[in-house]
Amino acid sequence: MAVKHTVMLLVAVCLYLPGLSHGFQPSFSVDETHRNITRKAVLRKTAEVCRDLAAADGRDFNLKIDDNLSVQEVQKACFSSSTSTAPLSTDIFQTALNEIYGSNEKVYFSLVDFPEFHFHSETFLGGRDIITRGMSVVKASVKLENFVAAREVLGQICHIIQDFYSHSNWVELGKTTPYSALIRPDQPLQNLAGPFTPTCKSCTGDACADNILPEVLKQGLLTSGYFSTFSSSKPTGKCSHGGLLDKTRKRDPVGGINKDSFTSDHGTLHRKAANLAVDATMELLEDIRLAAGDRNFLRLMGLSQSYALCFVIDTTGSMRDDIAAAKQVAFNIIDSNAGTLQEPSQYILVPFNDPEFGPVIKTTDKNYFKKEINKLTASGGGDEPELSMSGLQLALTSAPPSSKIYVFTDASAKDSHLKSTNIALIERTKTEVSFLLTNIFFSRRRRSIDGQDFSSRAVRLSNVQLYRDLAQASGGQAIEVRKSDLSMATTVIKDSSAGAVVTVFQVVMDPGRPDNFNFTVDSSVSNVIIYITGVSSLTFTLTSSAVVSQESSQTSGPLASLTTVGNLRRISLNAGNQTGFWQIHISSNSPYSIKVTGQSSVNFIYNLVELQQEGGIRPKEGRPATGGNVTLLVTVTGSDTVKVTEVTLFDSSVPKELTGSIQSLESSNFLVTFSEVPAGDYVVRLQGEDTSTTSRSTSDTFQRQASTRITTASLSVAAQADSINIEPGTSITIPFTVSSDVTGTFRVQVSNDRSFDFTSPGNVTIGPSNGGKANGTITLTVPASTGSGTDVTLTIQAQNAAPTDTNYAVLRFSVAAKATDLSSPVCQIVNISGICNVSSTLCASSQWEFIANLTDGINGTGIASITIREGNGTLDTSTVVGAGGENITLVTYTASCCSQNVVLAAVDRAGNVGTCMGQARLLATPAPMTTTTPVPTTTSLTTTTPIPTTTSLTTTTPVPTTTSLTTTTPVPTTTSPTTTTPVPTTTSLTTTTPVPTTTSLTTSTPVPTTTPVPTTTPVTPSMTTAAANTASTRGHTMSVTHYVWVSIAFSLLFK
Q1: InterPro entries recorded for this chain (predicted)?
Q2: Residues in Cβ contact with 110 at an 8 Å cutoff, skipping those fewer than 6 apart
């Protein structure tokens, strides 16, 4: 067995050093961090979406939505309606959140000297431009179901908008709501301090709370602190950011205005800035939600119970039987899991042949996937080998992280040079790859299909080893079977699609030798399956904690049932006796593998990280250094009551096992550090205890193992582009650096999954005087025809001359055309008809109707979708052409009086979002009738509104009819409305106007006889102008036509 080495790391890990920040701390601090801000916003918004979906379906949603939500609570609440007995897994959700966190943190560390990424140095226009362009990229990526690329951009723009509230004086100006114009390119940024306007005075000693000039605050001018890590220069009289990293802070006026932490110059406002950053992030997420739709928004957040179903299939002539088996298993998984939590979150298909591979088919529509996989036919390919590595590369860059990919082939790899590229992508994405190989036994057998000779289409032994190496690196399996037995082997695919599948134990022994292997099954695990691959002569003995044994010769015994197909043995433990300590003895001198899986909500995910001097932890790119420290950020999923007791790195080739030092952080996160890790290929193993119980029985102790390996390297590759977005028809330059303690020439291999043109050096040289580094540049060109939302993954590898050592950098870019439509759809209300009784007991017997025109302007991209955001009615739409040639979408919404409000969201083809709001007219209870002498009466009504908005309305209303009114563009004037009513009776009006707008009314109402009644008119004020105000608050401005109606003839009904 392995020799275990315990690493005693007696150091205090400092995750935060005050004064070294240039923004909110990225993660894990006593202060509010970018990670915490993002977590609060994402979990709250995700919970809101789940709550709204539940309400629309008439389901209960029992979760208090606040800043204290956990991943487990949100996941459980969102899937509370499921009747499935399978355990809930938060792995996919947590992995998606970690992607967003990681991208957010990269901005902090990698783009520190780009002021517009942090709103430093009054770069408000530049920062807003990055945010709004990024939002367009996210929406376009979601539309193409490129959720991973969307998360990367989302994390970046979340960081930028969060920094605004810490780095500007928005909080000092007394603002308590987010600055919505930052996510609206069609709205002006107002009251920006001019480039020559002084904004600060020097701090007095350590006191910096009042260093912003009073006249700046009085005039409401917006400013932010200047920041630089290399220069103390800044414009005269301007504020500095502050902090030890900021060299401008000592230039007059000295000090800073940032609110990054409680100890910052304006640290007393840190909490307010962080709370505003949470609200602003939620506002940004809401805009994306409206554009994407609720279901796709939840997919973007990774809220799913099942991984993607991903097939890479050889479509050459000899693969007819294999394709049929792949179709069969795919259809079986789709049909059996439809409508359940185990339904795959996405379907991905990559065909390959020679000389072609792809295109990738990626969809969430199971019927469309069925249609596409049904199109596959076997043809050509008699010259073997095929482009299996190219197909796998495309799948690895298309599938979500931690996916399971299944490759079907009976041929060798023609493009084996991509092996190291695919291993790099496997390590980066932590994806598990399994191969179903069907022709390795028949190298001398001739086969003819449709007249084609396939006698040479046997998988060569060298390529069998290639497939085995990739499977081992990913934690997958290389299953070798006869074509006639392939359908039996596909059982492993069905097993993995069960949902909440965890790896309890896994080991690969190459070379093989007889050995004993132990593992523990805790009480949360069910449906335990053991997979063993190896030669046919391999035997095993399985022993339970009750000291009951079963031999490999028993297909059905006291412990398990056994199925053998090809080189695979599938051992399914009998239900009822799975919990406890197990041992399996393998007898074989040939290579073999063991993998133990089960279903459980408790698991863990990890990421390689680096501790930073300025505080926080930074995602580690590429492989860790041989002989150096390895640091992991481990997140336990599925439980808030788990204690991690041991984390080890295990290398089965020696074998050896290293034990790490564990530091508990927040929210089930743990920092694990290994010191002086020698060269090797390691897997991560974790043991822990469930602290929710008081007993310490065996069932309370659990163990889990990560699938993919961690490989060390003695060289490193670093690459950084100044943008992750590229316009079609343009090129981007990516500088990279190869570092090594050894001089020499290093081979550089570059590839991208879209086959875009690029230029790069074939090698770089590190000389004695180069400081252990060599630089190079790559230029990637995106074709002009590439659509917005497309993503491209660039892999850069460096290899020593031996070649015995390799490292890599992986970058993902999103393609985004320059936006020309920056305006949101506009709403004009045409009519509201029907009157609803205030009594809820009578609401079902009455209906009301809301009619509006939605336009996107003559130069707009056009309205793409209209959805009901609030309301339980029905929506009908039709399109007409307006007088100016613009398309007008006429919407008619009808609902019962039990649902008296409606909010519609209109999205144009550029992803801009507008909302349209309406409210039913209410029938008030009549007042007692009063008779008076008919006299002409003039009623003067004056309304004053404390914001610069005026809505001018002119209405002639022959009572009791409703007349359509017109709304003009809001202007900063106040007009008192005057109403003249020549009627023979005195009319008493009660007007309720809960809106911050000024309404000018001129109404002529000739009524022959009226009995005075109190009249409430909520339609015009509370629906239209309140809608305008709400839309403005959210950043979605609407042009609204107002309606005023007066009903004062009820006495006629009673006489």
Answers
A1: GBD_Hemicentin/VWA7, HMCN1-like_VWA, Ig_VWA7, VWA7, VWA7_N, vWFA_dom_sf
A2: 720
